[in-house]
Amino acid sequence: MSKYTLSVNGQTMTAEVDDDTPLLWVLRDHLNLLGTKFGCGVAQCGACTVHMNGNAVRSCVLPISAVSDNEIVTIEGLSESGEHPLQKAWVENDVSQCGYCQAGQIMAAAALLTKNPKPTDQEIDRSITNICRCGTHVRIRKAIHSASEKL
Ligand code: FES
Ligand code: FES
Predict the structure, then answer these.
(1) Max Cα separation, the chain?
(2) How far apart are CA 6 and CA 75, in angstroms?
(3) What is the number of the ligand 2 atom nearest to the C-alpha of 133?
(4) Residues having CB within 6 Å of any atom of ligand 2
(5) Which ligand 2 atom is nearest residue 98's CA?
(6) pTM of the predicted model over 0.90
(7) pLDDT confidence of 80, banded at 50, 70, 90?
């Protein structure tokens, strides 16, 4: 066990965990940030996507020992009140079906728009490889285009 001091959503947080504990479990089990979901656990589905220094990362395979001083942002930290243009576009376009994958989808979309504010459908597909078992990918694309007009 080691004690880790982390920057999560702009706050300093601590957790005492084994060095190989995945960031996802630290977020969910130790910091009570339950918006980030566990799906496959093997970096395939993207349900666990958060930002590390602005980049989308799959927190289920990222050991806490690799996080150190990096800035982590989870869906809870994307905006304080759910007012981020992507969150609003998700609501306006009624994107979610079961909703399980959507926090990860939004975090992947936010990282994409930071680097590419006006992505094409092809660029969205290439960049966001998150899986949605409900098949909401068409509405996800639509919402990303809509949010990109407002950023
Ligand atoms: S739970 Fe991390 S990619 Fe599926
Ligand atoms: S909305 Fe159900 S898995 Fe994506």
Answers:
(1) 46
(2) 16
(3) 3
(4) 96-102, 132-134, 136
(5) 2
(6) yes
(7) confident
